[in-house]
Amino acid sequence: MRAICLPALLAVLLSAVAIGHPALAQSKNSGLKLANDKPIQIESDNLELREQEKKALFKGNVRVAQGDMTLQAANMTVYYKGGTKSIAAGGSDIDRIEVSGNVKLSSATQSATADNGNINMINEVLVLNGSKAKPVVLSEGGNVFTGCKLTVQMKSGLANLDGCGRVQIMLDPKSKSN
User: What is the pTM of this model?
Assistant: First the structure.
């Protein structure tokens, strides 16, 4: 199984802003990569495997951990490409993942929250969605970025935060010294 690793997204966005581009909504992120080399642990209240539909539904208090990265959501659906073995036997590759309900990605120092999101494993694109009432929030220390849609091209590291009208950024000068 492949999982997302999101260790440097906020640091890259913060550094882009810190070097004099306060309105910058795009940034190169070399640290965002898919990770296949670490074990992944998934927990949920319920798991439903639908072999014929090539999907697994994790419902209730979903928690996915890999290394220092954690993904939490109310629900997660994993869609598989066809394989010769069953999903339960690990015979299928992941096509895409959809998460919904209080989505939170976090590492030791960074976090991102959203209403819902999806990860296209073929194109390696991560999208987190929010709304004006409940925006996508990226934070590291006292630095906070707020918008309605975060799109990350994981192959190139390009990250784009679209605003709910406008992107909002709050920078803590104390975080620059850390």
Answer: 0.76
